[in-house]
Amino acid sequence: MVSTTSLRPAKKFGPGYFIKEQLELRDWTQEDLASVLNISPKHINKILQDQQTLTFDNARLFAEIFDTTTQYWVNLNTTYQLWLRQEKSEQEKEADVKAMIYERMPVKDMIAKRWLTPFDTTNDLVNQVKLYWKMDELNFSNIDQKYQPFLARKSDSYNQFNAAYAFAWFQKAKDVAERQERKPYNKSALQTLFDQIHQFTIAENGINVFLKQLSECGVIFFVLPHLQKTYLDGAAFFSGVNPVVVYTARYKRIDNFWFTVSHEIAHVLLHLDEKTPYFLDDLQHKSSDEFEKQANHMAAEKLKHPEILAQMSTVANYLSPKKVQECAHALQIHPAIITGKLAYAKRISYANQNRYNENVLDLLDGRWKF
Fold first, then answer.
1. What φ, ψ does residue 239 adopt, rounded to 5°?
2. Whole-model pTM?
């Protein structure tokens, strides 16, 4: 059913149509009218073709020679101009389309990341967007309907705007995942590996060794930078029957890497199913969602956060390197995880946190980065 708001009134005739009627009644030509009004024939032709808006002075002249009122011609012109403006110009139509896209996709950032290419025309942009979302027609209604369940699980920091951008990022993540080689998923092997995760934090080249063993469990892993306004640290979802863990390197710290990966593995083991097929996580904001609390708890347990707090209970703001090394050795955990946890718990200043934190992207093999 067509909405009444989408119906356009039948075509209106401009003043030119009615001027032609008057000329026919008098058997006048355009040149005759131009001579009577002392206006150039070219100007008269534009008025007759409704290519020239009728001025008030012209309305008075037509009223005089055609024996009508000025208001008659003013009303004809006003009604016609209003009708014309109900039909959007091509420029307005293109602006509407681009606004619809930009509300859902940070186009400039995506071009900078080479997820989209620079475009010359709106049609070029539309074709890229349809290819990106695997759409036959430019229609975001199905995607929009997915925002609400996602927002319900998130903190107040999320709104419709950054949720839309998060889904644009998620679409890219799914596309990257589809193209990755994968081994059969072994949940039992993943659980065993997860139980040992703290050992990899101190092992030589431990990050890459862990990720290789993660792939042996059938878990797809890669780094995909977050889009502006998405505030994403990581994600977990299924690609076919294989779970996927994505890290955005939003903060690029070693402690952030290990906690984010642990949090997403916890989601894989505890929560991913048909009812909850994905998690897009901003771990800097506390969530009241029980699934997020459970994933945080399991990640903290595997990375020995309770033991860190217990052993470092006497620390007051300043933390000596010796104390950190002693704790790291006793718990078999990376020093950056110790300082990161203490800073997050506000036991020490964040200045101390940077002492042991390298840029994790410098430690990751290129195979994991997209």
1. -115, 100
2. 0.75
The answer to whether residues 33 and 58 touch, using CB atoms and an 8 Å cutoff, is: no
pLDDT tens digit sequence for 11-37: 568 888 889 988 988 889 989 998 988
CA dist 268 and 145 (Å) reads 24
Contact 48, 21 (CB under 8 A): no
Beta strands in 174-325 (DSSP E): 220-223, 234-239, 242-247, 278-281
CB 305 within 8 A of CB 280: no
Tokens of 203: 């092992």
- Plot region of 218 (φ>0 → left; ψ -120 to 50 → alpha; else → beta): left
Q: For residue 295, give the nearest of 244, 235, 361 by alpha carbon.
A: 235
Residue 80's CB is within 10 A of a number of other CB atoms, namely 20
Mean pLDDT, residues 279-289: 85
Q: Residue 7 above 70 pLDDT?
A: no
Average pLDDT of the chain is 88
- Percent of the chain exceeding pLDDT 90 equals 57
C-alpha distances in Å from residue 367, one per residue of 171, 212, 221, 222, 295? 20, 10, 10, 8, 27
Q: How many angstroms separate the CA atoms of 281 and 264, rounded?
A: 8
Sign of the dihedral through C-alpha 266, 271, 273, 279:
negative
Instruction: Determine the pLDDT at residue 349.
Output: 75
Q: Return d(Cα 281, Cα 154) in angstroms, integer.
A: 8
Q: Is pLDDT at 3 greater than 60 in this prediction?
A: no
Report the C-alpha gap between 352 and 348 in whole angstroms: 7
Residue 136 class from Cβ within 10 Å (0-12 exposed, 13-18 middle, 19+ buried)?
A: exposed
